[in-house]
Structures are given as structure tokens and as C-alpha cells.
Amino acid sequence: MKHWLPILLALPVLALAFVLGAFNANPVTLDLVVFQLHWPLGVVLMLALGLGMLLMALVMYLVRVVPLQYQLRRCLRMQKTDVPGQELQLGD
Predict the structure, then answer these.
(1) Is there a domain that residue 88 lies in?
(2) What is the CA radius of gyration of the chain?
(3) Which pLDDT does position 83 carry in this prediction?
(4) Closest to 39 measured CA to CA, from 48, 50, 30, 31
(5) What one-character-per-residue DSSP string does 33-57 give?
(6) Residue (of 62, 88, 87, 61) closest to 73 by Cα position
(7) 37 within a domain of the structure (yes/no)
(8) Is residue 6 in some structural domain?
């Protein structure tokens, strides 16, 4: 059953992609200064959505995960030195 979960979660996204493609089939021109792209509006919308999600994932990684990794390394380093009377503290 575990192997079916990603497929079941991907089905609504795939359905959304088909609906966007079907209702937004009009061609649009993207002028990217150096060159132009002539794609259907549904493709442009899905690409914008995907790029936005990737950008947000990168920002969340840099803002949340990297500081937590630094904090964990600092705590593990303190634990290895085992300084008496000094407690490990998570957070600032």
C-alpha cells in the first residue's frame, strides 16, 4: 500500500494539469529579451506554478533547514567536548 500513496497523491495534480491545458489552449508569446517562446497558456501556467514551488522550497531550505543544521552541528560539537557544567541549549 505504501507504493500507491505517491501515485494517489499525484493524480489530482495530473488532473489539474489536464484541466489547465484543456481550458487554456490559446497560444501566448513570452518575450524573454533574448528570445521569444510561443507556447499554450496552460503550459506557461504550469511552468510558472512549478518554478514558484521550486523557488519557495529553496527559500524555505535556506531560511529554516540551514540554520537548524548549523545548530545541530554546534550542539554535537559541544557534546563531544563534554564541558562540565555547560548544558546543551537548542535555540538562541
Answers:
(1) no
(2) 23
(3) 59
(4) 30
(5) SS-EEEEEHHHHHHHHHHHHHHHHH
(6) 88
(7) yes
(8) no
